[in-house]
Amino acid sequence: MFNKRIKIKELLATEPQNQQATVMGWVRTFRNNQFIALNDGSTNNNLQVVVELGKFPEELLRRITTSASLKVSGTVVPSLGKGQKMDLKADSIEILGDSDAEKYPLQPKKHSLEFLREIAHLRFRTNTFGAIFRVRHALAFAVHKFFHEKGFVYMHTPIITASDAEGAGEMFRVSTLPFDNPPRNEDGSIDFKEDFFGRPTNLTVSGQLEGELGATAFGDIYTFGPTFRAENSNTARHLAEFWMIEPEMAFYDLEDNANLAEEFIRYIIQFALDNNREDLEFLDQRLAEEEKQLPQDKRSEMGLIEKLNFVLENSFQRLTYTEAIDILRDSNHNKKKKFQYPITGWGMDLQSEHERYLVEKHFKKPVILMNYPKEIKAFYMRQNDDGKTVAAMDILAPGIGEIVGGSQREERQDKLEQRMKEMHIPAEELWWYLDTRRFGTVPHAGFGLGFERMVLFVTGMNNIRDVIAFPRTPKSAEF
Ligand code: ATP
Ligand code: MN
Does the Cβ of 372 fall within 6 Å of ligand 1? Predict the structure, then answer.
């Protein structure tokens, strides 16, 4: 058996009392031919391995270079040096993999996030990305824990879909037809009957419609999987491939939906604070350092952990779309023409600058906007009695903008079919969806939370490319 090691995080939590330990990891630095800072990814804290002078051959010591991988066995003793409570006094050192430190792209200095994106295959080995991706893991785990504890069923909705009705975004086509010479119909159009599935198919933009099928049997379900949008918007908030969590609940109205979303967001933040304190403290410091470069008025008013605690302790501001438009229209910001898209009036879609104004300048806390004009929302959202709005809700977070989009769904078959007709959505294609309204329809609701936007919020990072391992964005699919 090879893997008789203790993880460095676990070892550092023990008391040094001359116990034996074996660790494995990568060399961060090697000082004075004596002190190895070893990291194994379990924590940003390195273990100091002490190499006694004269105990090991010169030839071995020369191979202990930055990023070389080692197996070290020895005795755990209280450290004589400052900055760490223990040392591992090496009895044996085995080089598992050599590394040419000259060619190794990560030097022990500060690299820019842009540069690190170009070496995304190695960036996990930095403290910043170590912290980010351990926090990302904790959040993902907390998602499952939250829903499991509430009795939700985790449902895997399909990644390849034939329906493009949802209209959440531009889709990626899935096909095995030859690009250069696809089979054609007599009128020259492509003959998809010859394609793999015998019809056009795409990568999913959302699991919601299938999620509703699950909710109307299990009561409460959630999905947590990849979704794809071929949106050509090169922003710091959009990916072409991102992970979405979509709970769908039978017997829920819009308020129940908003309550669950708030509870859910708090729960996963609390979980990260409880389980990843060290990493969050590191990211808090990182953000504070970074913001020192900014002019005073561009800095956040709160530190990262302070902001997370604020969200735990304060309820989200709820208001209607109509109220939001009034606030925006009457704002000095609008009067002084500081919005790129001026507030033209009721019915307009909100841009992210408007969302961020509400959250960051006006309310200074997360906001839940409800009851949007039906014209700017999807066909499946429940029509309100005013004939103008639907029971939609978006949750807006400071520094991010929209983090959740959801709604109560239209459970009344006649209303749903009428809205589909108005929006030119072919009912034949969605026969299976409409069946839920035919056979024991119930009030139900759900929402979608963009996982990477949540990770951005919790880590205090600015660019969505830095919170997913290998980002997919327009003109970029390396690794
Ligand atoms: P936006 O207006 O920001 O493009 P949207 O209205 O298209 O978002 P929805 O269709 O409601 O978003 O999707 C649900 C959630 O998925 C959003 O609230 C957001 O958190 C996330 N999301 C949407 N598009 C993307 C994307 N391209 N990359 C990452 N996350 C996304
Ligand atoms: Mn979008």
Answer: no
| Cα 357–chain centre separation | 23
Q: Which domain holds residue 392?
A: 125-170+205-466
What does the pLDDT read at residue 87? 98
Over 80: is that where the pLDDT of 168 sits?
no
Percent of the chain with pLDDT over 70: 99
Contact 362, 343 (CB under 8 A): no
- Please state the pTM of the whole predicted model: 0.96
Q: What is the pLDDT of residue 233?
A: 82
- Tell me what the mean pLDDT of segment 9-13 comes to: 98
What was the pLDDT predicted at 1?
Answer: 87
- Do 77 and 137 share a domain, yes or no? no
Mean pLDDT in residue range 408-436: 96
| pLDDT band at 331; cut points 50, 70, 90 | very high
* Ligand 1 lined by 265 (C-beta under 6 Å): no
> How many angstroms separate the CA atoms of 125 and 104, rounded?
12
280 and 416 within one domain: yes
Q: Which ligand is nearest to the CA of 400?
A: 1
Query: Could you give the CA distance from residue 350 to residue 52 in angstroms, rounded to a whole number?
Result: 65
User: For residues 40 and 357, what is the distance between their CA atoms, to the nearest angstrom?
Assistant: 42
User: What average pLDDT does the segment 187-213 reach?
Assistant: 96
| DSSP string across 332-348 | HHHHTT-SSS----TTP
Query: Is residue 296 located within the same domain as residue 399?
Result: yes
pLDDT at residue number 167: 67
Band the pLDDT of 362: cuts 50, 70, 90: very high
92 and 239 share one domain: no
Give residue 79 CA to ligand 2 midpoint distance, Å. Answer: 53
Do both 73 and 147 map to the same domain? no
Clarify whether residues 55 and 12 are in a common domain.
yes
Q: Which of 104, 33, 42 is nearest to 68 (CA)?
A: 104
Q: How far apart are the first and last CA of the chain?
A: 32
Residue 466 Cβ contacting ligand 1 at under 6 Å: no
| Domain assignment of residue 184, yes or no | no
Q: Which atom of ligand 1 is the closest one to the Cα of 205?
A: 10
Q: Report which protein residue has its CA nearest ligand 1's atom 4.
A: 238
d(CA 340, ligand 2 centre) in Å:
19
3-state secondary structure of 217: helix
Measured CA to CA, the distance from residue 232 to residue 248 in angstroms comes to: 29
Residues ≥6 apart with Cβ < 8 Å to 351: 339, 340, 341
